[in-house]
Amino acid sequence: MRCLLAAVLFVLMTASAIADGAVVHSGSHGVRVKDIVSIQGVRSNQLVGYGLVIGLMGSGDSLRNSPFTQQSIAAMMERMGVNIRNGDARTKNVAAVIVTADLPAFSGHGSRIDVTVSSLGDATSLAGGSLIRTPLYGADNQIYAVAQGSLAVAGFDSRGQNESVTRGVPTTGRIANGAIVEREGPGRFVDQEELRLELRNPDFTTAVRVAEAINEFGSERFGKMGVRMALAEDLRMVRVFRPPNVPLAMFTAMIGELWVQPDSPARVVIDERTGTIVIGSEVRISTVAVTHGSITVRVTETPVISQPLPFSDGRTVVESDTEVDVIEEPGNFSIVNGSDLHTLVNGLNRMGLKPPGIIAIIQAMKSAGALHAELIVQ
């Protein structure tokens, strides 16, 4: 009996400790629920289409190397009543492109979305071009939008006979509000009885805090009918039951404005290519002694001319004089007293290391078992 009571007391104390960080005020170090979760089923859909960009200043596709561009031009002209099947087009002002866009959730008929236009052939630049009417298809091969308009290209490409200058990517452009939605995307925000909130950064503690914040809000706002209306299913999903006689859109806006304190695992992310190091606030280390030095070996080759003695029938040769220098920089043996992020950063800064040296030390700490965090090397 005592063991059962102790177990129940432990569970209650754990739940209370987690719930203490559930609700915070806007002035505290917390975030809104709407900023860390997404509603299951409310998402955007990807669209793609094939089209032509016209009006280029000689920077379009070469029709000999891009036969699909020539076929597209002929098909477009035939739709307009012009037959060029037997002709030999020589234009350099047209480029075949792939058009992509994201259809936001709940986009209705007539709304506009941005599109991205990318060259498909050997065009050198899309600057100054205009995209002609291009249907955009979804994954079900249905047309959801139609794109058309003038491109905005950030890069440029200038060429001469002996030199060329290129900045950015001139073969990709963007059209703001360049597509008109013709069909609504699948899925609707119907008047359902429950919401399923998905955490963008899955974590058990954060899921429980979100559920507790919603339950506390429901008890204060809706009384008995709002008690325990949220349940954390796992580290990613929180189920929320809508109180009766409350519109779903209004209820979603209410819980989205609640403030919680999200939790994050101890994690260190290292990008060895750029020397970027990101250390989470929850990272802890044990007390370790660290030294780091480097050895530089320099090999110098000096040419030396060797001439033979007079009347010796010898030849003049070039020999090399090799000199090897070994420079060993002193390594500071420092003690890093672990506990928190501030101590770790100060200890590494006192050693005066560059990013490659810090990366090597962090990896060695992980191998020694002194770094109590997940190490991610990109």
UniProtKB/TrEMBL annotation:
Main location: other
Pfam family for this entry, one: FlgI
TM annotation in the entry: none
Region forming the signal peptide: 1-19
Keywords of this entry: Bacterial flagellum, Cell projection, Cilium, Flagellum, Periplasm, Signal
Keyword Signal recorded: yes
UniProt xrefs under InterPro entries: Flag_FlgI
Biological process annotations from GO: bacterial-type flagellum-dependent cell motility
Compartment(s): Bacterial flagellum basal body
Molecular function as annotated in GO: structural molecule activity
This protein's record includes keyword Signal: yes
GO CC annotation terms, alphabetical: bacterial-type flagellum basal body, distal rod, P ring; outer membrane-bounded periplasmic space
Source species, domain of life: Bacteria
Record family assignment: Belongs to the FlgI family.
Xref: HAMAP family: FlgI
NCBIfam families found in the cross-reference section: PRK05303.1
Subunit field text: The basal body constitutes a major portion of the flagellar organelle and consists of four rings (L,P,S, and M) mounted on a central rod.
PANTHER family reported for this sequence: FLAGELLAR P-RING PERIPLASMIC PROTEIN FLGI, FLAGELLAR P-RING PROTEIN
Functional note: Assembles around the rod to form the L-ring and probably protects the motor/basal body from shearing forces during rotation.
Protein name, entry field: Flagellar P-ring protein
Gene name of the encoded protein: flgI
